[in-house]
Design goal:
Strand content: 15-25%
Helix content: 25-40%
Strand order of the largest sheet: 10-9-11-12-13-14-15
Largest sheet: 7 strands, mixed
Radius of gyration: 23 Å
Number of helices: 16
Oligomer: single chain
Length: 502
C-alpha cells in the first residue's frame, strides 16, 4: 500500500461521499443519514476532538451503544490522526479503568450512565458525555467545532487498540495499524461474502467488537453499502430490524441465530431480501447451520479469526463446498501453517497450532514486548494459540485453544472435541468442557451443559452417548446441568470460572 495514500476508514468514507453523496450510509429503518451528511458529521467530530487536544497518536476511547455515534467518533479519530480504543459498554468498571489507564487515553466519549461512572472512578482521561446538553456535551462541541485540521498518516501507523476479553489475566491491547484494517476489510469481501453498494448490512454485534468493526462497519464503508448498527439488542428486536430495513446481509453471532431458531418469530418473519448471513465471534454448531437452512432456505457463512488478525483468517465463503465442521479456506493474502510442538509443520490430518501470516496480522501487544515476542515470530508468523487440522483439500478445522488443553492420564483432550459430541444431543442447548484435578489420571473431564428450551437432560443417557462417540479418556467423568454458562463481554465462555467451580 502506498504510504502517501493510506486507505483508512476516513479516506474510504470521503471517497463514498464524493462518489455517492445522496446514497444512504446509515439507517435504522425509520430515518437515514446520507454519505455526504455522515462525512460532514465526521469532520465536525474530528474538529471537536482536536478542540479537546487530540493530535497524532493520542488515544480516544469510545464507550457508546449508539451505532451512529460510534461510527462518527471512530472515523473522526482516524481523521485527526488519533488512535481509537473501542470498549464494550457492558465492561465492568474495573475493566474500563484498566483499559483507559493502560492505553493512556486522552479523551473518552461515553454515553450515560457510563460517563458518570467513569467520572466517579476518577479516570485521567477527559470524559465527554454523548447525551449531555451543556456546553461540554458531545453534540454541543460538534456544533461549534468548525473544520478539522488535516492530518497525514501512513498505513503503518497505529489505528486501533482492541482490548482482548481477558479470559486469563488482565486484558491487553492489540495494536492494529491502518494497513492491517484496510487489508482485512478488502480480504473480507472475497468469495461469496462480497458486499456491494446495493446491500443493506445489519450488524447485531456491538461495533466495539473487532468482528463487527471490520466485517460490519469496515466492509460496509468499503463497499458503499448501507449500514444498520443498532448496538447490543435482544434477538427478537434484531429480527424485527432485519425485516424493517430489508436487510440483505446480516453480521451476527451463533447466540442470535440460535435464539431465532428457538423462537416462533422466525417462521413469520419476512427475510425475502436476505442473501448473506455471516456468523462469527464464537464457533457455530452444525445443528444451528442445518436448522437455519431448513427453516429459511439460506446458508450461514462461518469463519475463523482472532483480534490479532484484524480479525478474519479463513471462511467458508471462500469455497462453494465447505465440508460440515470446517471453517473453510484462508482469505486472500493469508498464509496458514499447522505447527507441532517441535516447531515443524504437522503432516496429514494431525493437530497443530495454527500460525497465520499476512498483511492483516497485528503489530503486537501495547506496552508488552514480551507478550509480543511470544505471539509473533521474527519472520512475521502469528502464533494463534488455537489448535486445528486440515484435510486433503486444505479445508481448516478448529480443534480448540491450546491453553484449554486437558491432559487425562497422559493423553491430550481438546474441550471442543467433547463439546461437539455433547451438543449434538437435541436436549442440549450449549456446553462447555474443562479439566479438573484427579488423583489418578492427573485431570478429568467435566462437562457443564445447558438444556434446550423445553427439554430435560438425561445425564446417564448423555454419558452413554459420549462413551459411544469418544475415546475413554475423552469422556466426561461428570456432567453438570446448569441454567447458564458464564461468558465474557465478547461472548466467549469463561472456562476459568468453570475450572474454579469444578
Amino acid at each position: 500500500m502506498d504510504r502517501e495514500a493510506p486507505q483508512d476508514l476516513g479516506a474510504r468514507l470521503r471517497a463514498r461521499a464524493t462518489a455517492r453523496p445522496d446514497g444512504v450510509a446509515l439507517s435504522d429503518g425509520d430515518s437515514s443519514i446520507t454519505w455526504a451528511q455522515l462525512d460532514a458529521r465526521v469532520d465536525a467530530a474530528a474538529a471537536a476532538l482536536q478542540g479537546l487536544g487530540v493530535g497524532t497518536d493520542d488515544r480516544v476511547a469510545l464507550v457508546v451503544s449508539d451505532g451512529d455515534t460510534f461510527v462518527e467518533v471512530a472515523i473522526a479519530t482516524a481523521r485527526c490522526g488519533g488512535v481509537l480504543v473501542p470498549l464494550l459498554v457492558d465492561l465492568a468498571p474495573d475493566e474500563l479503568r484498566h483499559a483507559l489507564s493502560d492505553s493512556g487515553a486522552r479523551v473518552v466519549v461515553a454515553g450515560p450512565p457510563r460517563a458518570a461512572e467513569l467520572r466517579a472512578l476518577g479516570v485521567r482521561a477527559r470524559v465527554i458525555d454523548t447525551d449531555s446538553l451543556d456546553d461540554d456535551g458531545w453534540r454541543a462541541r460538534c456544533r461549534e467545532a468548525g473544520r478539522p485540521t488535516t492530518v497525514e498518516r501512513g498505513p503503518d501507523d497505529l489505528a486501533v487498540l482492541f482490548y482482548t476479553s481477558g479470559t486469563s489475566g488482565r486484558p491487553r491491547g492489540a495494536m492494529l495499524t491502518r494497513a492491517n484494517l484496510a487489508a482485512n476489510q478488502d480480504q473480507s469481501h472475497a468469495g461469496r461474502l462480497r458486499v456491494t453498494a446495493d446491500d443493506v448490512v445489519l450488524v447485531t454485534v456491538p461495533l466495539a467488537h473487532v468482528y463487527a468493526f471490520t466485517v460490519g462497519l469496515g466492509v460496509a464503508i468499503t463497499a458503499g453499502a448501507t449500514l444498520v448498527a443498532p448496538g447490543r439488542v435482544d434477538p427478537p428486536t434484531a429480527l424485527r430490524i432485519a425485516e424493517s430495513t430489508r436487510a440483505t446481509a446480516i453480521v451476527t453471532t451463533p447466540a442470535v441465530l440460535t435464539a431465532w431458531l428457538d423462537a416462533d418469530d422466525l417462521d413469520a418473519a419476512n427475510l425475502s431480501a436476505l442473501r448473506i448471513v455471516a456468523s462469527g465471534a464464537s464457533p457455530l454448531g452444525m445443528q444451528t447451520i442445518e436448522r437455519f437452512r431448513q427453516r429459511t432456505g439460506r446458508s450461514i457463512t462461518e469463519g475463523y479469526g482472532l483480534t490479532e488478525a484484524s480479525p478474519s483468517v479463513a471462511a467458508t465463503s471462500m469455497t462453494d463446498d465447505a465440508p460440515p465442521g470446517s471453517v473453510g479456506l484462508p482469505l486472500p493474502g493469508v498464509e496458514i501453517r499447522l505447527v507441532g510442538e517441535d516447531g515443524s509443520d504437522v503432516v496429514g490430518g494431525d493437530v497443530g497450532e495454527i500460525w497465520v501470516r499476512g498483511p492483516n496480522v497485528f503489530r503486537g501487544w501495547w506496552n508488552d514486548a514480551r507478550a509480543t515476542a511470544r505471539s509473533l515470530t521474527e519472520d512475521g508468523w502469528l502464533r494463534t494459540g488455537d489448535a486445528g487440522t486440515r484435510d486433503e483439500h486444505g479445508m481448516l478445522y478448529l480443534v480448540d485453544r491450546l491453553r484449554d488443553l486437558v491432559i487425562v492420564d497422559g493423553f491430550s483432550v481438546f474441550p471442543g472435541e467433547v463439546e461437539r459430541v455433547v451438543v449434538e444431543d437435541l436436549s442440549v442447548h450449549s456446553a462447555a468442557v474443562v479439566g479438573t484435578p484427579h488423583p489418578v489420571t492427573g485431570e478429568a473431564i467435566v462437562a457443564y451443559v445447558v438444556a434446550a428450551p423445553g427439554a430435560t437432560i438425561d445425564v446417564d443417557a448423555l454419558m452413554a452417548r459420549c462413551s459411544g462417540r469418544l475415546a475413554r479418556y475423552k469422556c466426561p467423568a461428570r456432567i453438570e446441568v446448569v441454567d447458564a454458562l458464564p461468558y465474557t463481554a465478547s461472548g466467549k465462555v469463561r472456562r476459568m470460572v468453570l475450572r474454579d467451580e469444578s
